[in-house]
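Final report, Chapter 2: Outcomes

The project's central promise was a pipeline that accepts a single protein chain and returns its three-dimensional structure in a standardized token representation, suitable for archiving and comparison. That pipeline is now operational. To close this chapter, we reproduce one record exactly as it appears in the project archive, with the input sequence first and the structure output second.
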Amino acid sequence: MIIEHGGKKPKIDKSAVVAPSATISGDVRIGAETCVLAGAVLTSEGTPLKIGPRSIIMENVVIRASKVHPTTIGHHVFIGPQVHISGAFVSPRCFISTGAILFNGAMLEEGCLLAVHSVVHMNTTCKASTFIPAGFTLYGKPARLYNPADALELHRKIASKGFTKTVFGFDSSEMSIPLSVETLCERYLKSLLTHSDDREIG
């Protein structure tokens, strides 16, 4: 399904293959001979989303360009099933395994390999040819690998660096959890409700 959103139409190279059940919405560009498989969602929520040539987007991948952070995927990038990428930059020749996550402001330099369910967190650069093991998270400046046992320490660091400000555009540091969730929904809905004017064009 190809959707015009916010007056912007996707631009898909004639040689690219997009599965009928994939959704491509808004200011999205897909390069030559790239394949987007069943159930994938590629959506621009205010900034451009660009996919380079000869890349592979597997089933049920979600790739978003946020209001603040554009997303760029280079050439010859493999993105496995159920990967989630939001507002990130992926250099050429990266391999992103099933279930991996890239948050807003993340950058993969050339040739990175992310194992199953690994994470590159907000505003973190993964240096060229880095391998992130299954279940590990890369975060910080300089970037550090955290294993699942470090989850509480990692959570505190991410919260102190303004996760909700980076990802959702507001500071929740002085709010209770219920109030911050309500604020998140109210702010995010302002942009998401603009989809009521979307138009299917293909």
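Archive annotation: The chain has one domain: 2-200.
This record, like all others produced under the grant, will remain available to the consortium after the project formally closes.
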